Amino acid sequence: MPITFDSSIILTMDPGELRTEIEIQERMATTNVTGEETATWVTVAGPVMARIETYGGGEYTRADRTEARATHRVTLRYLDTLDVTAVMRVHLILADTYLNVILATDVQYRNAVLSLLCAEER
Prior knowledge:
- The protein is an all-beta fold.
- The protein has a single domain, classed as Thrombin, subunit H (Beta Barrel).
- Helices cover about 0% and strands about 60% of the residues.
- It has no helices and 6 strands.
- A 6-stranded antiparallel barrel has the order 1-2-3-6-5-4.
């Protein structure tokens, strides 16, 4: 089932709707003492305030197993110092939950609002 994205976000954002403190993290490859490559997550932006909305969800069958997947839309002020990509994740600080970024959109290409379509990490 393809994931669709709703770009009908209003550019004027009420700051009171940005209630959730988040960090944006990027996967970095590091080498441990034995020379093995390991992946660690490094915070590249944050903490910043964002609006989190449950966007959808469903169950999917993969390798004869049923898995649940919840998607969320994370809306925040545009970060001109960071190019958010699909190899990043969002850390909801108070809930200690991680959301993998699927799609990052500069709403109406005005560098004012950044909208991230994310899937819950399982």
